[in-house]
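[step 3/7] inverse_fold.run input=structure_tokens len=253
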């Protein structure tokens, strides 16, 4: 059974005050989360505070990135073990902003994913095409390439067992432009078919300008198991409404 999952990615936004207020607001709307798994991914420095604010609520927390190394002389990096130490449940890897701005390759992303899985974190692997790639008709080829770095790994079966995948068309992230439910469903179905044996159990999220007004129709699609939410995750009412929309989506088996 694939339980719906909604994850907020705060990106490089927030402060201690903002995190306190937002976590309290999200926590207060407890009824909206029945049957839905909910998590927020603040910047690293806010993780301890978010953990303290959400502990015992059933709402999880995650990080936005992780090192591909377990420990050592890697100035500025944060290891999967350190995240686990703060009871972190999820970690986003391969977000398009990491790929485009910081040179995260498919292979590096799998290295990060492996570190996360090794310590028992749930990696959220982001895949998705740019507008140019979609216009060129290469959406499936791009997503396949991003997935194949994982599927071709010797330990692929192990990595796939704990994984969440987020399909995030780059042209829809932070732009206000959303893939239509049919466009999103088509790529989700393609991803599920490519995953093979574990596909039926793997949760596939859609990300890209999800708002309360479009969440319901996206989450109603058969292969969309929830959302990775950017901008709307910073607004308590919007995030809670999106979680509520996932609640109306029955778990799929
Ligand atoms: C994201 O950053 O993963 C994202 C989906 O952002 P937004 O919802 O703002 O498009």
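[step 3/7] decode complete -> sequence:
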């Amino acid at each position: 059974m694939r339980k719906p999952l909604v994850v907020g990615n705060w990106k490089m936004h927030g402060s201690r005050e903002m995190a306190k207020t937002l976590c309290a607001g999200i926590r207060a709307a407890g009824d909206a989360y029945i049957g839905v798994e909910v998590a927020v991914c603040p910047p690293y420095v806010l993780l301890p505070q978010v953990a303290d604010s959400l502990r015992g609520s059933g709402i999880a927390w995650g990080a936005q990135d992780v090192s591909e190394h377990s420990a050592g002389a890697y100035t500025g990096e944060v290891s999967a073990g350190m995240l686990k130490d703060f009871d972190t449940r999820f970690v986003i890897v391969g977000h398009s902003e990491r790929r485009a701005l910081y040179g995260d390759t498919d292979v590096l992303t799998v290295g990060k994913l492996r570190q996360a899985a090794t310590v028992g974190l749930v990696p959220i692997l982001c895949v998705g095409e740019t507008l140019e790639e979609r216009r060129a008709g290469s959406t499936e080829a791009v997503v396949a390439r991003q997935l194949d770095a994982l599927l071709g790994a010797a330990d692929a079966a192990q990595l796939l067992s704990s994984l969440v995948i987020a399909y995030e068309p780059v042209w829809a992230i932070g732009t206000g432009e959303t893939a239509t439910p049919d466009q999103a469903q088509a790529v989700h179905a393609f991803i599920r078919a490519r995953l093979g044996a574990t596909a039926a159990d793997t949760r596939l999220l859609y990300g890209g300008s999800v708002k309360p007004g479009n969440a319901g129709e996206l989450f109603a699609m058969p292969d969309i198991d929830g959302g990775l939410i950017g901008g709307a995750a910073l607004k308590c009412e919007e995030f809670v409404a999106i979680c509520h929309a996932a609640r109306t989506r029955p778990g799929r088996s």
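[step 4/7] annotate
Residues 9, 168, 173-174, 207-210, 228-232 surround phosphoenolpyruvate (CB under 6 Å).
The longest helix spans residues 181-195.
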